[in-house]
Specification:
With about 475 residues, the protein is an all-alpha fold. The chain has 16 helices and 2 strands. A hairpin with a 3-residue loop joins strand 1 and strand 2.
């Protein structure tokens, strides 16, 4: 009995010490793995800086380690878990560096998705700065284009729908403000961009209705009927379908049939369960920093728009010289008309700029109308008289479209002026025209004038005018 008591007391007095697995003899053969495991444990327990220090030691000490790529990705994850604007900016850069140095690893898709998720985490409400939402949209589109079959693709698609809902909501609020205010062009510029780029937007049918009303009040019923027809065709379950059909019948326009794909998409959206805030949480929506109601109203099915937004599809109103606004296009008729592009919800969207029927597209030169009167041509010069300094036989100067040919008689073409280079001592003739050079190359008062120098100076002047015109497109 005494032996038993002594043995138990000895066991109590001599407890076994806990063995640290990281410093055991089994792990001493792989110090890089020891550093990596220790850093991962620190990051999991919130010690981000300590974990990054261990990972950086691993990268600097063992540049050929098999844990090199995992260490770089873990550093980016530590910044992402830490949060804050500065840390999230570091996380974006670290994820992008991983995608550049290790593009063929399976973790490259995860790094690209994390770049988009970081911007997604920093998004603000639709009425605030939307630079993070625009960046998140671009990064999600890049991920879906590079890795369409990735297991994380469904998550990226849904988040892209959420982002596009927030961007469209911001443009819709601005367009609705101008619509109520009575500024038709500013409202139409925003609403047209919404209906073309974001057909999955929850209020696209309302945007189409406002566009139809804008063009109806502007006495463009043929364009308004196209917008009303889109409501009937692409949003057949919308509460505005009945009013749209009434408008089409009043315009004596055939009522289109609803699109089966759009009808199936809207039925799926109505049957999808959505999150609802309780009565206690609803007042907290006023103090939330990020979007919440837009994420609930975002579409849950359908293909989001994967085309990046180009420079010529901006939703802002374009101002032409003279403070005249137009809805896209550069032709004379672009400010008074618009093109309605039909986009079926759930099948992607278009990013082409708005062009006016009969107008010019961006970057093309305007074509003069058929009934335009051609400019008067120059009268043929007398064969006996020598050529003037401004019309010497220079093929380059003659091919320049900036200076039209001058008429022999100023009364024939009073608008066209001829640029000539004369010496300071040259005197005009009695009839007001420039003095013609004599046979020996001298003028009437004996001053020397070279036709070659005149042609060269004339060509330089026209070239400088051309460059000046390219720099300054609007002369006032």
């Amino acid at each position: 009995m005494a032996l038993t008591v002594g043995t138990s007391s000895a066991q109590i007095l001599h407890k076994k010490k806990k063995v640290d697995k990281s410093t055991s003899a089994d792990n001493t053969a792989e110090p890089d793995k020891v550093l990596y495991d220790r850093a991962i444990e620190d990051i999991k327990h919130g010690r981000q800086e300590v974990g990054r220090l261990s990972l950086q030691t691993l990268i600097n000490t063992y540049p050929d380690s098999e844990y090199l790529a995992k260490a770089k990705l873990a550093i980016a994850d530590s910044y992402y878990r830490e949060g804050g604007s500065a840390s999230l900016a570091q996380a974006i850069q670290a994820y992008k560096d991983f995608g550049i140095f290790f593009p063929f690893l399976p973790e490259a898709s995860y790094a690209q998705l994390q770049v988009a998720n970081t911007h997604y985490k920093e998004m603000a409400k639709p009425d605030r700065d939307r630079s993070e939402a625009k960046a998140a949209e671009e990064e999600f589109q890049t991920f879906l284009e590079k890795y369409p079959k990735d297991p994380l693709a469904p998550q990226a698609e849904q988040r892209l729908r959420n982002v596009q809902e927030i961007i469209a909501e911001g443009d819709y609020r601005i367009g609705y403000y101008y619509y109520v205010k009575g500024d038709k062009r500013a409202a139409a510029a925003r609403l047209i961009a919404i209906t073309k780029r974001y057909p999955l937007y929850s209020k696209s049918d309302h945007a189409l209705w406002m566009l139809g009303d804008i063009f109806e009040r502007s006495e463009h019923k043929e364009i308004a009927s196209l917008y009303y027809a889109q409501i009937v065709r692409n949003y057949p379950l919308s509460p505005l379908v009945g009013d749209a059909k009434t408008k089409l019948k009043a315009f004596k326009v055939p009522v289109p049939q609803p699109d089966p794909k759009a009808q199936a998409w809207m039925a799926a959206e109505q049957n999808t369960p959505r999150q609802h805030d309780s009565l206690i949480k609803r007042p907290l929506a006023l103090v939330r920093s990020g979007p919440h109601a837009e994420l609930i109203a975002a579409a849950k099915t359908g293909a989001p728009n994967l085309q990046p937004e180009s420079d010529n599809t901006s939703a802002t109103d374009v101002l032409t010289p003279g403070n005249r606004s137009q809805l896209g296009g550069s032709g004379p008729a672009a400010g008074n008309a618009a093109v309605v592009e039909i986009v079926t919800p759930g099948s992607g969207a278009s990013t082409g700029g708005e062009s006016a029927p009969g107008g010019n597209t961006g970057g093309t030169e305007a074509t003069p109308p058929a009934d335009a009167t051609p400019p008067p041509t120059a009268a043929p010069a007398d064969s006996s008289s020598p050529p003037s300094a401004g019309t010497a036989g220079d093929s380059k100067a003659a091919a320049t479209p900036a200076a039209p040919p001058a008429a022999a008689d100023p009364a024939t073409n009073p608008v066209t002026t001829t640029t000539t280079t004369a010496t300071p001592d040259a005197k005009p003739a009695a009839d007001g025209s420039a003095a013609a050079p004599a046979a020996d190359g001298k003028t009437a008062d004996g001053s020397q004038q070279s036709a070659t120098d005149s042609n060269t100076s004339d060509q330089k002047e026209s070239t400088s005018k051309k460059k000046k015109g390219l720099r300054k497109l609007v002369p006032w």
